[in-house]
Specification:
With 126 residues, the chain is an alpha/beta fold. It has a single domain, classed as Rossmann fold, CATH 3.40.50.2300. It contains 5 helices and 5 strands, in the order E-H-E-H-E-H-E-H-E-H. Strands 2-1-3-4-5 form a 5-stranded parallel sheet, sandwiched between helices. Helix 1 packs across helix 5. The longest helix is centred in the first third of the chain and has 17 residues. It comes from Blautia segnis. This is Response regulator.
């Protein structure tokens, strides 16, 4: 099964982002398992067993940078959508993050990130 993980610090935002992801995927006839994590330690423990295809990383400040670096070092092929309150765009480029954007998280921005991960060849609509 296709798995998308959301690593975030606020539960309600995680639920909202999961809904955005599921709306995008349903529109394209993709039905992933979306898992929300608020605990980085638990997240990194879980992905040792099952690597998600895509991770939406939405942690503030340096916590997000550290998580992105750690994720990339553990799983170089995992696709990352990274949202931050700080401009880490250069770091995101160096880490080969598929899509980086700054807060606020809006459905359209998240959909652009998912399009970057899935690619236009998967029947993605503009």
């Amino acid at each position: 099964m296709y798995c998308i993980a959301v690593l975030i610090d606020e539960e309600q935002k995680g639920q909202d982002y999961a809904e955005y992801i599921l709306n995008y995927c349903a529109d394209r006839k993709i039905f992933p398992l979306v898992q929300i994590y608020q605990d980085q330690e638990k997240f990194f423990g879980e992905i040792q067993k099952t690597v998600p295809a895509i991770v939406l990383l939405a942690l503030p400040g340096v916590a997000g940078l550290n998580a992105a670096e750690h994720l990339r070092s553990l799983h170089p092929k995992c696709k990352i959508i990274w949202c931050s309150d700080l401009d880490f765009s250069l770091h995101a480029f160096k880490l080969r993050v598929e899509y980086f954007f700054m807060e606020p998280v809006e459905e359209q921005k998240l959909w652009e990130g998912l399009t970057a991960c899935f690619g236009r060849s998967k029947g993605v609509k503009k």
